[in-house]
Amino acid sequence: MLEGSILQQLETAHRHTTRPIRFGVYYKNTLVALCHALEDHILTDDSTPLVITAFQRGKWYLQEAERYADIAQHSGQIVIMAAAESGFAEHPTSLLPNVDLVALDSADAVAEEWHLIILSSNYTAMVICQELSEDDYGSTGVPTSDLERKFYGLWTFEPELVQETAEIAIAHIKKYNSELADKLTADKQQIVPSTARLENLGAVVSRVVDYLQTGQDNLSIPTALGQQTLDRNLVSNEIQAFLRMAQLMDMADVNNPMAAAEVVVLAEAIAQLLDLPAWQIKRLRLASLLHRIDPLQNAESVLTGGISTRYQEDAPSSPLTCPLVPGAQVLRTMPRLRAVAQIITHQTEWWNGSGEPAGLAGDEIPLESRILALLADFQWRLNQQKLSNQSREQIFTQALNECKQQQSTRFDPKLVDTLALLVMGLQQGLDLPLMTPKFSAGIWILDSQWDSHSKISEEISSYFT
After folding, report:
1. 51-60 mean pLDDT
2. Mean of per-residue pLDDT scores for the chain
3. How far apart are CA 268 and CA 351, in angstroms?
């Protein structure tokens, strides 16, 4: 990581905190799809965002300059950083009143970075990456195909992280143009991003997945191995888009901000008690993380109008037979998430058959859906009671008893009995450390990799202490 780069400064600021930055490796084609999705969303959103970019060299900016002329019409201010080259400052887009260029010194570490930072009142988003050095590529050497160039970094919608990165970028711009930096600081202070407007974020997430999918459809990779590698990188980021959406949904729920993460922990504990196979635990884990994905149901997307041709060919034996629940339907466009979509769709079924959307009853309801329904309700009840003056044992007992009242009507009676065993263990001091997935570190959900450093020192919540 280059000294003095924006990426390095962000990593350093978080290195010894409770929220260290976890970076991933991204292929250029993935970053192009991500950036184009985020840029094009500006054209359809009703806000006028502050946009800060870094293009490495002027020639890369010139390839996108026409796009940025359109983006400028829908933005409050755009700043473009790049090492200056012929035509960099002369292009018509560069002369627009709300577009400013910052010509980086060739020795500036930021000239090796690729950034897109978007701050608006409706949403925040960013891609920040740094190209791998020749040493980083190792024995394979620097790729000959431009699409296979690799970058180290992350992308996110998290407001606090995006705002922090914008501040670092503005401080860097100040070294070149203090007047512009002061203006950007003033503009930034006028923008108050709101995580409450999740419908806006749903539209962004949907667009990101669209572009990642269609970007893959248009690739022409010389070898089958290269195609497979790039495909896995894209699929990883499609999954990450949904995970980030779910993460921000939890953050926006001030009354229950850790719902998904806590349901994951409970689900894995129940799965162990039921001795479920690893593959079933894996998809139950992902369904738990995504079980509150509802805002996607309002997102306009090509995904809701039809299924990608590539994905139909990948999984021809997996027809979409479940009722169409829009939020979950978006997940069904990816073969690896169709089982997860089914789990989420049927979590509202009732054991006695009176639930929705299909009126399934008893064992007709997928096992993971039954587990998810029970644990989501149980976690919500625990969260409701955590600020009460009751003891830990009383909180667990009350939440369990309320679930038992719906045993054999809403919930699977055997699963309620299994939950009772888990509650007994929790009351006797069983520790369930909170786990968080590595959203930016590759394709963790497909290879079941969990970060050994993601255990939080506190237990699952105050009622688990």
Report:
1. 91
2. 77
3. 22
149 contacts 27 by C-beta, under 8 angstroms: yes
| Residue where a domain stops, chosen among 194, 216, 231 | 194
Which amino acid belongs to residue 224? A
Higher pLDDT, 350 or 138: 350
Burial of 250 (0-12, 13-18, 19+ CB in 10 A): middle
- Per DSSP, what are the bridge partners of residue 130? 113, 152
- The interaxial angle of helices 367-385 and 392-404, nearest 10 deg, is 140
Residue 461's DSSP bridge partners are none
What lies within 8 Å, CB to CB, of 111 at 6+ separation is 54, 56, 57, 82, 83, 104, 105
pTM above 0.70, yes or no: no
Query: What percent of the chain is helix, strand and coil (3-state, nearest 5)?
Result: 55, 10, 35
**What are the DSSP calls for 353-417, one per residue?**
S--SSS---GGGS-HHHHHHHHHHHHHHHHHHHTTSS--HHHHHHHHHHHHHTTBTTTB-HHHHH
How many angstroms separate the CA atoms of 442 and 446, rounded?
9
List the structure tokens of 189. 């202070």
Question: Quick check: 125 and 118 in contact, CB under 8 A?
Answer: yes
pLDDT at 170 over 60: yes
380 falls within a domain? yes
User: Do the beta carbons of residue 142 and residue 123 sit within 8 Å?
Assistant: no
The tokens describing 228, both together, are 């497979």
Domain residues for the domain of 112 are 6-194
Q: How confident is the model at residue 51 (pLDDT cuts 50, 70, 90)?
A: very high
CATH of the domain at 301: 1.10.3210
Overall domain count for the chain: 2
Q: What are 351's two structure tokens? A: 């054991």
Which of 194, 213, 232 is at the close of a domain? 194
Instruction: Tell me the pLDDT tens digit for each residue of 324-366.
Output: 454 455 565 566 677 888 888 899 999 999 998 889 999 999 9
| DSSP secondary structure string for all residues of 226-248 | HHHHHHHHHHHHHHHHHHHHHHH
- Residue 381: per-residue pLDDT: 92
Tell me how far apart the alpha carbons of residues 302 and 214 are, in angstroms, rounded to a whole number: 10
Residue 222 gets which letter from DSSP? Answer: S
